[in-house]
Write a structure and sequence with these properties.
seven-stranded parallel sheet; TIM Barrel; single chain; 10 helices; two-stranded antiparallel sheet
C-alpha cells in the first residue's frame, strides 16, 4: 500500500496545516438550499447554532485550516467563523478571499480595482477579528484590471503586515507564473476532483514548486461512486466510504494537495478527516485515475 507522504503541509513554508481542511462556504442559507454547485451562498445560516457547532467540532477533530471568503453570505461567513472560534487556537489558520462582488444571489462578478481589494481586506480583518490574515486569496482575476495591479495590492498589504501569505483562485499556470514574478504565491485554490480534472497542469506546477494546491468541491459524488463503480469497489476493499476514497486519491495525487471539503454535518466532517488514514495501492490509485478525463490547462 502507498501511504501519503505526510499528514501535514507547511503552507507558505511556515504554517503547518493538516492536509484536509474545512471549507465553510456551506454554512450559509437554509439546510435545504445550501447543497450542490447552484447554492446561492447568499445569507447567514438559518440553523446558526448548528453551524457554530460544526465549526467548533471541526477544530476539535483536528482541522487547522478553515477556508472562507468575503463574498460568502456577504461577509456573514467570516463573522460566523469569528463567533465560533475567536480567540483562535494558536495553530489554527484561517484563509479568506477577496475580489468577487455579489450584486445578487446568483451573481459572482470579479472586481480587482486596488481600492476595492484594500477595502475588502480591511473589512475581512474586522469580521475575522484579526490584525493579520493568515492566507488571503484573490478570489478571481478581474480581466478589466492589470494583474500586476491586483497582485501588487495584495503584496502591499502583505508588506504592511495585514496579510501573511497570498493565494490565487481559479488560475492557469501562466497566470500563476505571472503573479509569482511579483510576489511569492503560497496557495492555489482551483476546482478539482476525480471527475473535474481540467487543472492537471496547475496541480503539477504547484507540486513542483512547493505551492499548496487547495481543491474546492473535492468530492464529486454521482454515478462514478455508484454500487458498481471503481470508487465503491475500492472503498469496499479497504473498509472506507466512497467519499474517503475520493479524498484519499487527492492526497496521493500530489504532496502539496490540501482538499477543503465542506459540510454542515459533524458526522460527514469526521468521515472526511478519516481519509488521512487511508492508504491506496499503486493499482488502486491508477484505477481511480481512469475515472476522470484530464484536460491540461495552459
Amino acid at each position: 500500500m502507498t501511504a501519503i507522504a505526510s499528514e501535514f503541509f507547511s503552507l507558505g513554508g511556515d504554517l503547518p496545516v493538516r492536509r484536509i481542511g474545512y471549507g465553510a462556504m456551506r454554512l450559509t442559507d437554509t439546510p435545504t438550499s445550501r447543497g450542490g454547485g447552484t447554492a446561492h451562498i447568499w445569507r447567514p445560516p438559518t440553523d446558526r447554532a448548528e453551524a457554530l457547532a460544526v465549526l467548533r467540532g471541526a477544530v476539535a477533530l483536528g482541522v487547522n485550516l478553515i477556508d472562507t471568503a468575503d463574498a460568502y453570505a456577504l461577509g456573514g461567513n467570516e463573522k460566523l467563523i469569528a463567533e465560533a472560534l475567536h480567540p483562535y487556537r494558536g495553530d489554527l489558520v484561517v484563509a479568506t478571499k477577496i475580489g468577487n462582488t455579489r450584486p445578487g444571489p446568483e451573481e459572482w462578478v470579479p472586481l480587482g480595482h486596488p481600492a476595492y481589494l484594500r477595502q475588502q481586506t480591511e473589512l475581512s480583518l474586522r469580521r475575522l477579528r484579526v490584525d493579520r490574515i493568515d492566507l488571503l486569496y484573490l478570489h478571481r482575476i478581474d480581466p478589466a484590471v492589470p494583474l500586476a495591479d491586483q497582485i501588487g495590492t495584495l503584496y502591499q498589504l502583505q508588506q504592511e503586515g495585514k496579510v501573511r501569505h497570498i493565494g490565487l483562485s481559479e488560475v492557469s499556470v501562466h497566470e500563476l507564473q505571472t503573479a509569482a514574478n511579483i510576489t511569492p504565491i503560497a496557495a492555489v485554490q482551483n476546482h478539482y476532483n476525480l471527475l473535474a480534472r481540467q487543472h492537471e497542469a496547475v496541480l503539477d506546477y504547484t507540486a513542483e514548486h512547493g505551492i499548496a494546491f487547495v481543491p474546492y468541491f473535492p468530492i464529486a459524488m454521482g454515478e462514478h461512486a455508484g454500487p458498481d463503480s471503481p470508487v465503491s469497489a475500492i472503498a469496499a476493499q479497504i473498509g472506507a466510504t466512497p467519499a474517503q476514497v475520493a479524498l484519499a486519491w487527492l492526497l496521493h495525487r500530489s504532496p502539496t494537495t490540501i482538499p477543503i471539503p465542506g459540510t454542515a454535518s459533524l458526522t460527514h466532517l469526521a468521515e472526511n478527516m478519516g481519509a488521512l488514514e487511508i492508504a491506496l495501492s499503486d493499482d488502486q490509485f491508477a484505477r481511480l485515475a481512469t475515472i476522470g478525463d484530464p484536460v491540461n490547462a495552459a
